[in-house]
Write a structure and sequence with these properties.
Elements: E1 4-8, H1 15-30, E2 42-47, E3 50-56, H2 67-82, E4 85-91, H3 98-110, E5 114-119, H4 128-133, E6 141-143, H5 152-164, H6 170-183, E7 190-195, H7 202-211, E8 216-217, E9 229-234, E10 237-242, E11 247-250, E12 253-256, H8 262-271, E13 274-280, H9 287-299, E14 302-308, H10 315-328, E15 337-339, H11 348-362, H12 368-381, E16 393-401, E17 406-412, H13 419-433, E18 441-446
Helix pairs in contact: 8-9, 12-13
The chain binds guanosine-5'-diphosphate (GDP) (2 copies).
One guanosine-5'-diphosphate (GDP) binds near residues 202, 204 and 312.
InterPro entries: G_ENGA, GTP-bd, GTPase_Der, KH_dom-like, KH_dom-like_a/b, P-loop_NTPase, Small_GTP-bd
Organism: Aquariibacter albus
Keywords: GTP-binding, Nucleotide-binding, Repeat, Ribosome biogenesis
Length: about 450
């Protein structure tokens, strides 16, 4: 499971700037999708092959008891509770304040591993302010400059080592990935997460599924950290259902737990091969739905959208819903949308079909000669735009990964290929290979 890093500190010390640095690579991929909400406080980061989740928190004043400050403090407490390691950010330019001492005291009480990031330290190494940081009792202040990117990498490395020791998992990961590429979807269970906001009907749906005779559930919950999976079989296909945010298994049934946890959702999404995004027809498409959808896209997971409680809405509402999905979830246009009623057991068959198809799209083998031929045809039909002196040349393509499928295109001046041209290529590849229910990544490489 991905480790979770929480960024904590008083307002204006540079948490958001640091957050953007740590999650940058991922955001770049999805920057250009219409409708994708950007005001996120949870992000995926990657260092080498190691992936992690970063939580950015609002301003934090643990002693204040009123209004927005209190609310932010509450959120921060939750973030700290969910984190494996906390990065406490202070501003060495502004100096250490009484508030910083309050936060430090709170963090020491939590017993969580904490790293002290002395931010805005560009050109200030060895300064008196860094020394001041020692007084917080958090350990050695680590000079960083979030704005200039200095020290961020070693800070992140240290945070990850704090979570899991410095053991190098990278070889193992690479082997696992190579293996996945080698035997595709063959006999592996499909890891399935049902995600959606509280009350969307997740536990109703899952219990309906697990109650069906045709679906054989095995009673052996896994035990990795606090993730629990339920293996089962349906139509000869093996699945592993992942406990998701707001859901816990109690004996034989799933129950909604009270608190919705974004981190648990992110971890379940990261852990899944296919995500069933459950919307609540009676509530429309909310910000929270759009956020979850954004995380699914970021993570590159295959996805099927099911609008639940279809039984409870009238024709007008149904039409509204379709429109909302088209607008607010435009970036998941590739995902099939189904209407169901978990309660009345309607429309559930097609969900299984859509899940299997999404998985098979996500793991499809794309042959190099066909990819290259499609690339040439696409370029012939419409050339990439010239930018200044450069006209990108696209020469050949091959598959670089599965779940999500990655198509690597080699050529020259590829950095001048526009996002809209990439989407044009994506559309052509998608149409040919009938890739539905999975994101598709296009990576461009120049040289060689
Ligand atoms: P937050 O309220 O803790 O999320 O802080 P922000 O990330 O919004 O940053 C507050 C201000 O500090 C902004 O004006 C940033 O540009 C600035 N800032 C952030 N990091 C650095 C840094 O490393 N050096 C300097 N000089 N300024 C920074
Ligand atoms: P969860 O928080 O996502 O696990 O949601 P629950 O499964 O606990 O469902 C929340 C509420 O919605 C419960 O009162 C369910 O009975 C109701 N519900 C779930 N599915 C449906 C459905 O298909 N139609 C209607 N009308 N109600 C539903």
């Amino acid at each position: 499971m991905k480790p979770v890093i929480a960024l904590v500190g008083r307002p204006n010390v540079g948490k958001s700037t640091l957050f953007n640095r740590m999650t940058k690579s991922r955001d770049a991929i999805v920057a250009d999708y219409a409708g994708l909400t950007r005001d996120r406080h949870y992000g995926d980061g990657r260092l080498g092959r190691r992936e992690f989740i970063v939580i950015d928190t609002g301003g934090f004043e643990p002693t204040a008891e009123t209004g927005i400050v209190r609310e932010m403090a509450r959120q921060t407490r939750q973030a700290v509770a969910e984190a494996d390691v906390v990065i406490f950010v202070v501003d060495v330019r502004g100096g250490i304040s009484a508030q910083d001492h309050d936060i430090a005291r709170y963090l020491r009480q939590t017993g969580k591993p904490v790293l002290l990031a002395a931010n805005k330290a560009e050109g200030m190494v060895g300064s008196a302010h860094l020394g001041e940081g020692h007084e917080l009792g958090i350990g050695e202040p680590l000079p960083v400059s979030a704005a200039h990117g200095q020290g961020v990498r070693s800070l992140t490395e240290l945070a990850l080592e704090t979570c899991f020791g410095s053991a190098d998992e990278s070889d193992e990961d690479e082997e696992a990935e190579a293996e996945l590429l080698a035997d595709g979807s063959a006999d592996r269970p499909i890891r399935l997460a049902v995600a959606g906001r509280p009350n969307a009907g997740k536990s109703t749906l899952i219990n309906t599924w697990l109650g069906e005779e045709r679906l054989v559930a095995f009673d052996m919950p896994g035990t990795t950290r606090d993730a629990i999976t339920v293996p089962f079989e349906r139509n000869g296909q093996r699945f592993e259902l992942i406990d998701t945010a707001g859901l816990r298994r109690k004996g034989k049934v799933f129950e909604a737990i009270e608190k919705f946890s974004v981190v648990k959702t992110l971890q379940a999404i990261a852990d899944a091969n296919v995500v069933l995004l459950l919307l609540d027809a009676t509530q429309g498409v909310s910000d929270q739905d759009a956020h979850i959808a954004g995380y699914i896209l970021d993570a590159g997971r295959a996805v099927v959208i099911a609008i639940n409680k279809w039984d409870a809405v009238d024709a007008y509402q149904r039409e509204q819903l379709q429109r909302q999905i088209e607008q607010r979830l435009a970036f998941l246009r590739f995902a099939p949308v189904l209407q169901i009623s978990a309660l009345k057991r309607q429309g559930l068959g097609p969900v299984w079909k859509a899940i299997s198809e999404a998985w098979s799209s996500a793991t499809r083998k794309l042959s190099t000669p066909i990819l290259t031929r499609l690339l040439h045809e696409a370029v012939e039909h419409q050339q990439p735009k010239r930018e200044g002196a450069f006209r990108p040349k696209l020469r050949y393509a091959h598959q670089g990964g599965q779940n999500p499928p990655i198509i690597v295109i080699h050529g020259s001046s590829t950095e001048h290929v526009t996002d809209s041209y990439k989407r044009y290529l994506e559309g052509r590849f998608r149409a040919h290979f009938k890739l539905e229910g999975t994101p598709l990544r296009i990576e461009l490489r120049s040289g060689r």
